[in-house]
Structure formats: structure tokens, C-alpha cells
Write a structure and sequence with these properties.
The protein is an alpha/beta fold and about 400 residues long. The strands form six sheets. Strands 2, 5, 18, 19, 22 and 23 form a six-stranded mixed β-sheet that branches. Strands 7, 8, 9, 10, 11 and 12 form a six-stranded antiparallel β-sheet that branches. The protein is built from nine helices and 24 strands. The N terminus is likely disordered. Keywords: Hydrolase, Membrane, Protease, Serine protease, Transmembrane, Transmembrane helix. This is S41 family peptidase.
Length: about 400
């Protein structure tokens, strides 16, 4: 996920995206209706408050209240109706009507789960997840994580967790089922379309300490700069960590550099812009943003990089997403480095997290990003490597061969 951050490091749109709503629409008062004219409600159970709009942009939203009223009158188990659950279900259905896998509504409980999952340390299997229709799929298993060691790959469809059916559940719900204490076991049943295989795998959860950057020494004067994610407590913290690793790299005077972005799920857009600035000249276009009106904004390198001339190769795979795709796309479009590996996720959208009044959250796509030359990265047109290589060893060797040839 690309997170939009302002200059002082605080989330630009509160916690990265949320819409201020009053029931379903903000700022449009049409009129109140007598919601339950012929229904006796138990006031100790719940009461509906706030303005109940009957129309929004020529859509008669009175149908919602009509159905709610019929539930109160006719549902067989009226005494167990929870009005808050009905509301959250209605809001979730409203958001799902967009049919956008990257736009989601999270209840207060799900919001807490989501934010805890974004911490640097957590206990689980170590993978990001994505919504695809009625199912949740593996997006980017963290390198070296229990998920990767168990053989889980991007696009694997999670069918069951500990024998519980996951169809129809959200990313947050599935993540909650998967997460657990370190050294405990979780059984995941997944489907892999590539070989039409359904498989059970038992995984031992571990404490996951998310790394950001690592420098690895190879022979022949080649270094690997492994970027696990473009995320830290804030952009400034990431940038300091980046500078520290680059200083170490420069001291060793490498002859060539492999930037490894495999299974990198993304992170702060300002962090990737800073990173790319190490390799491209000041003023070079890193990426572009396009809002819903079609207005485009270019983001250029705004500093003097220290590695402008070092020969380099980028490695990506099917788990490289979002900000890591911005990095690879910038290198391709500016003819700075060749890309090796497999096609990427194709997540060319930016999201905001909007904190709602009751502690719930709206995760909403608000614009898309384009590469330096204006390519919109998506699932049908992701980052396509200059040199295709399917497995890890082949990718490593191809990258080394390309550098040695230079």
C-alpha cells in the first residue's frame, strides 16, 4: 500500500484515509423521516439517531430505511438484533458496491487489528494479504518469513484457516484468524490456480521483526541492496536508515549493485522518492500522480544522489507491489537500470486512511500513480522485467551476469 505522508511526517489525511460521514452521506440534508412509524422499539436495546436522508444524488436511499424497518417488524429473532451491527453491515455493503479491492470499511475492532498489523514487530506468519472477490489471497510473503518457508506464494487463495471457511470474509477477518502467538500452529488451506491445486499447510507462527534495508556482500565487488519495505515509524526515520546503509555501501566502493525488491509490499511514497533520488539526477521524474479529475502531478528528484554512476540491476517478482513498483518503473523509464524477474503485482493506486467518528476507518483509493513516462501500472499491465527469470536462483544469476557484462 502506498501511504501518503505530509512534510512533517504525520499522515497527510489523518491516518491515511477516511471520509467523514453521517450515516452514509456528508453534508447533504434532505429531510428526516419517521423511520419506524408503526414499530415499537425497545429503547434499552438501541435507538437510531442522526439525520436519515431520503435522497442522495437522485438515488432514493429511503430503501435502506424501508428494509431496516421491515427487519424490525418481521425478522424472527428481533430480540437479538444489534443496531450497530446492522449499521456496520450496511456501510460495508455500501463500500463493497464500489467493487474495488483496495477500498474497504473497517469497524473499530478491525481498525485496531489493522493498525497492530502495521507495527514493526508482530506475531504471525509474515505476509500481506489482498482482497479478490469473495476470497482473500496472499499478496507479498515477507522474505524469510514462516509464510514463505511454508511455500505460500502471491495469488494463493486462502480457502480455510484452521478448518474455518474464509469465503466472504474481509482481509482483516482473515488476518485475525491467521495471526497468533509465536510458536503456535495455524493450518491454512489454499488454492493455487497455476497448477489447479488445493493444499493444506501447517505453519508455526513466529515473532516477525520487519526489516527495511539490508546490504549483502557478494563476490566480484558486487553488493546487494535488499529493500524489504519502504516503511518505518515515519518517513524521516526511514530516510535516516537509508542514509546509514548507503554510507556503509559507499565505504566498500562496490563495482556493481543489485537492488532486490522481491516481495516488497510498498510503503511511504515519500520514502521511495527519497530512495530513487540516490540513483537519478536532480530534476529527473520519479513518478506521477493522477487524481479523479485527470489532473497530473509530477514528482521529481529533489536532492543530490551519491550513487548516480554505479552500474545496477533491479530484481522484482510477483510479490513486488506499490512503492517497489514505483522504484522499478523509475529505473526503467529513466534508462538507469535493467529489471530482472517476473511481472509484479500491478498496484498502481494510492489510498487514504480516513478515521471515522466512532473509531472505524475507511480505506479508500483516491488517486492512481503513473511511472515517469506516464504508464499506469495495474494488474493487466504491471512492471514487466527486461529479462524474465522465474525462480530465485535464476534471477540472482541473471542479475550478476548483467553486472559482470558491464
Amino acid at each position: 500500500m502506498i501511504q501518503k505522508i505530509n512534510n512533517n511526517g504525520a499522515p497527510k489525511y489523518l491516518v491515511i484515509f477516511l471520509l467523514i460521514v453521517s450515516i452514509f452521506v456528508a453534508g447533504f440534508y434532505v429531510g428526516k423521516i419517521d423511520l419506524f412509524k408503526n414499530v415499537e422499539l425497545n429503547p434499552e436495546k438501541y435507538q437510531i439517531t442522526g439525520d436519515k436522508l431520503t435522497e442522495r444524488n437522485n438515488v432514493d436511499v429511503g430503501l435502506l430505511w424501508e428494509v431496516w424497518s421491515e427487519i424490525e417488524q418481521e425478522y424472527i429473532d428481533t430480540k437479538n438484533i444489534d443496531g450497530q451491527d446492522l449499521l456496520y453491515g450496511a456501510v460495508d455493503g455500501l463500500v463493497k458496491g464500489l467493487d474495488d479491492q483496495y477500498t474497504n470499511f473497517l469497524t473499530p475492532e478491525e481498525t485496531k487489528e489493522y493498525l497492530s498489523g502495521n507495527k514493526r514487530e508482530f506475531e504471525g506468519i509474515g505476509t500481506t494479504l489482498a482482497q479478490e472477490g469473495e476470497f482473500v489471497v496472499i499478496e507479498s510473503p515477507i522474505d524469510g518469513s514462516p509464510a514463505q518457508q511454508a511455500g505460500l506464494k502471491p495469488k494463493d487463495v486462502i480457502l480455510r484457516v484452521n478448518e474455518e471457511d474464509m469465503q466472504g470474509k474481509s482481509v482483516i477477518e482473515v488476518a485475525k484468524n491467521i495471526r497468533g502467538e509465536a510458536n503456535s500452529k495455524v493450518m491454512i488451506t489454499y488454492y493455487r490456480a497455476d497448477n489447479n491445486e488445493t493444499k493444506d499447510v501447517e505453519i508455526i507462527r513466529q515473532k516477525i521483526d520487519l526489516k527495511n534495508i539490508e546490504v549483502i556482500d557478494l563476490e566480484n565487488g558486487i553488493k546487494i541492496l535488499k529493500i524489504y519495505q519502504f516503511t518505518e515509524a515515519d518517513v524521516e526515520t526511514f530516510n535516516r536508515e537509508w542514509d546509514s546503509n548507503i554510507s556503509q555501501l559507499i565505504q566498500d566502493n562496490p563495482k556493481g549493485l543489485i537492488v532486490d525488491l522481491r516481495n516488497n509490499p510498498g510503503g511511504f511514497v515519500d520514502a521511495v522518492r527519497y530512495s530513487v533520488g540516490e540513483f537519478l539526477p536532480k530534476g529527473a521524474v520519479v513518478f506521477q500522480e493522477e487524481d479523479k479529475s485527470g489532473r497530473k502531478t509530477q514528482y521529481k528528484v529533489n536532492r543530490d544522489g551519491k550513487l548516480l554512476d554505479i552500474p545496477m540491476v533491479i530484481i522484482v517478482n510477483e510479490g513486488s507491489a506499490s512503492s517497489s513498483e514505483i522504484f522499478a518503473g523509475a529505473m526503467q523509464d529513466n534508462d538507469r537500470a535493467e529489471v530482472v524477474g517476473t511481472k509484479t503485482v500491478g498496484k498502481g493506486v494510492e489510498q487514504k486512511l480516513i478515521n471515522l467518528s466512532d473509531g472505524s476507518m475507511l480505506q479508500i483509493v483516491f488517486q492512481k500513480w503513473l511511472t515517469s513516462n506516464g504508464r499506469h501500472i495495474n494488474e493487466e499491465d504491471p512492471i514487466t522485467p527486461d529479462h524474465a527469470a522465474d525462480d530465485t536462483e535464476a534471477q540472482d544469476q541473471k542479475a550478476i551476469d548483467l553486472l559482470l557484462s558491464k
